[in-house]
Amino acid sequence: MTSPPFSSGIFGLVKGTDGARSRSLLKDATELYVSEPVHTRSEVAMYEELAAQLLKVTALQDRIRIATLLADYNEVPASVMRALLHDIFPVSSVMLEKSKGISEGQLLALVATASPSHLEMIAARKNLQPAVVEALLGRMRADGLPALAGNLSLSFTPSAVRHLVENAQGNPRLARLLAARMDDVQDTDLINLFLDLDGRGRRRVIQALEIAALREFAARRPLPRVPMPDPDKVATLARACLQRNTEAMSRILSDLTGLDAPFLVRLLADTGGEPLSICLKASGVEAGIATRVILFSGVEDTRNYFDVKRLIDLYEMVSLRSALLLVDRWRGTLPSTKRTPVHIAQTEAGTPVRATTAGTRQGEKPVEMPLIRRDRA
User: How far apart are CA 150 and CA 181, in angstroms?
Assistant: First the structure.
């Protein structure tokens, strides 16, 4: 190297250093360290020793400056990287956001002890290794999973998708991020999330249901019989619509569909209206009554013309078989107590060396409808 050795520069910084100066010494040493593209072993060892001794007494703003300098540097000593990654969030976030030299082992060690904020920063890193993704799924809380689902540089395994889908129920932000993933999240994975999706995600589910209905038809499975609605109940429903009596509307629709009345209150209040439209198709009510229910539902006094037309078009377009498939799924997926999903690592779920014996875990329920693994809206 043409410039003076790093060790000579350090000796110059150390010489005559008082207590106040020692607090900024590591920042000055780091600036000197990154000014050289490569270093000898003795220079690296000297910088590591300085960092080990001074990092704890260095001011926060100086530690942030040190992290900023080293984040863009290729040869960061492992001990210094580890210390910065395990520092408080303002320091470690700089490394997690900018540094490309963090190894898989360092990330795994950080995941094991990191705070939720650190985990979200790790989840947002591009091209994470599969082992790191597995570790994150095992430790992240449900409110942090959107950071992982929104990372489009990752590709999730089927077990990871199942874990994310289970946590997305009742979490619209996570559900919509999953619906935006076209490569590893299939349309059928989103069926149980229908109420939490936006319009685009719901179109994916509706198409998946239509394809499932066509396959049932091709397999000559009989269409479930929908009884003719009681005329008196239909008339009462029509009057309740004009009065905007949501409680009465939900009670009558509950009698017609077999769904719980509180669940139907949610359908009636849904802004998009697609779940209500499909529910009305499955109930067997005729188009005029369906139009009245749609018109006088939602959060506003009445839906506007374009929303009503869109929902009536959906009512007429969706097949009875696919509407029944979705309503049957709703009947079977209304648990009384919500279970917190726990991610099971792929190595525990079964590998070519140690496979599960029966193909499913003990107590796991069979899938209630055919799975279509490649259908897009």
Answer: 8
End-to-end Cα distance, the chain: 60
Q: How far apart are CA 272 and CA 195, in angstroms?
A: 9
| Contact status, residue 164 vs residue 342, Cβ threshold 8 Å | no
Backbone angles phi, psi at 219, to 5 degrees: -85, 5
Contact at 8 Å (CB) between 36 and 73? no
- The answer to whether the beta carbons of residues 150 and 128 sit under 8 Å apart is no
Q: What is the mean pLDDT of the chain?
A: 85
Contacts of 298 (CB under 8 A, 6+ apart): 268, 269, 270, 271, 273, 307
- Residue 56, CB-side half-sphere exposure with 13 Å CA sphere: 3
Tokens of 286: 């005729």
Burial class (CB in 10 A: 0-12, 13-18, 19+), 228: exposed
Asked if 122 and 136 touch (Cβ cutoff 8 Å), the reply is yes
Mind listing the pLDDT tens digit for each residue in 334-363? 444 455 667 766 555 554 444 444 444 445
Alpha helices, H only, 125-227: 130-139, 145-149, 158-168, 172-179, 199-218
Residue pair 54/18 in contact by the 8 Å Cβ criterion: no
Residue type, 281: K
Q: Long-range contact list for 86-89, CB < 8 A, 24+ apart?
A: 86/110, 86/113, 87/55, 87/63, 88/60, 89/115, 89/117, 89/118
- CB < 8 Å & 24+ apart, contacts of 302-307: 303/273, 307/273
Euclidean distance between CA atoms 328 and 213, whole angstroms: 13
Q: How far apart are CA 326 and CA 321, in angstroms?
A: 9
3-state secondary structure of 356: coil
Specify the pTM: 0.77
The identity of residue 155, as a single letter, is: S
